[in-house]
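new request in #modeling-help
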Amino acid sequence: MTVLVCADADEAVAGVRDGSTVLVGGFGMAGMPVALIDALIRQGATDLTVVSNNAGNGDTGLAALLAAGRVRKVVCSFPRQSDSWVFDGLYRQGRVELELVPQGTLAERMRAAGAGIGAFYCPTGVGTPLAEGRETREIDGRVHVLEYPLHGDVALVGAYRADRMGNLVYRKTARNFGPVMATAATTVVAQVREVVDVGALDPEAVVTPGIYVDRVVEVGS
Amino acid sequence: MSAQSLVAGVLAGPADLDAVPMTAPGPLDKHAMAALVARDIPAGSFVNLGIGQPTLVADHLAADSGVVLHTENGMLNMGPAAVGDEIDPDLTNAGKIPVTELPGAAYFHHADSFAMMRGGHLDVCVLGAFQVSARGDLANWHTGAPDAIPAVGGAMDLATGARQVFVMMTLFAKDGTPKLVPSCTYPLTGLACVSRLYTEHAVLDLGPDGAVLRETFGCSARALVERLGRG
């Protein structure tokens, strides 16, 4: 399927359905696809499950989506931060559900989804409340817990540059979850600072090959 | 009197508590603790420093130590905190603080970053803690209080994955109760994962046989064991 180079962020998030699972890239604000999230708020999809490392910072980006009442459930590793007041308030009022996942397990569950792995055994979390009641197996003398893949209907990713085939390069630690989420969703949307012509990206430097990407939109810096 | 009989198994050996050296005249401050941790990190190690006090360890690593810092949000050869024009929103550490890159830096995505931990490629991580048990169980992510919002981040992955886990913490809580305990009462981060504990009063090795005092600061081993036992 060819990549759609969108005119604006609203076109890039068109068609997101109520009840979707949305993978949202970023670690704090680094790599957070703010323009796409703002467009998703305008687009109006609700009852969303959001998968992201954090649960919003300040009042923009993911925090704004939460504040707009569009999120039923957050799957993340680290909701509580000094500036996570939007999530904190909703959680304490029982207005948003939380599934807490260790950060590496969160990434690996999406990697598994993107790689066609049915499930995997992971040592992280054994003996802790996050593994209570879960299926475990001892492998080579070490107890592991069974983890299932985590698919998205949509992934919203912030990258640095894209070419018109959807190949993506990232910048510094803003890469974080982007390349993994880009493999794990049915529809993958990337906001980038610049869309360049085919051939302008060094093929050796491409991090996310365009095969994973459905839509790109240039949002400037 | 043996250590075990004093504190119900919190501390095992050495047989002669009086043989444990006191290596500083008073309790250490957090910078002196960080310097001790830095001293014990083998040259050339790949190291992850947790959020908070453990980040101070970076200030005490010798320039020629060859220690490479890993940050779980996807970078090796992380440099010091960024100042002024160096600040770049695309370059932060795990605490979301702007940092710099050193020559030889590498960036990678989150699944690779945590594969480095789980796969046994990370030599040492240094973490803070609410409680540590004498056999090395770690509790550092959740107080369990009913109104607390739980947040685990990469703590469980680090505790489980790094080849050695060092903990830096105060030995006693504000109310005087020991944070080194026979069994953690706070929700666990990982089982039997901490190998060494750095506190303002002492450094201890932890393991299946219990905690062993290596050195004390400003108090005798015997006095410290008695205080731990009273907690």
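bot summary: Chain A touches chain B through 48 residues (CB under 8 Å).
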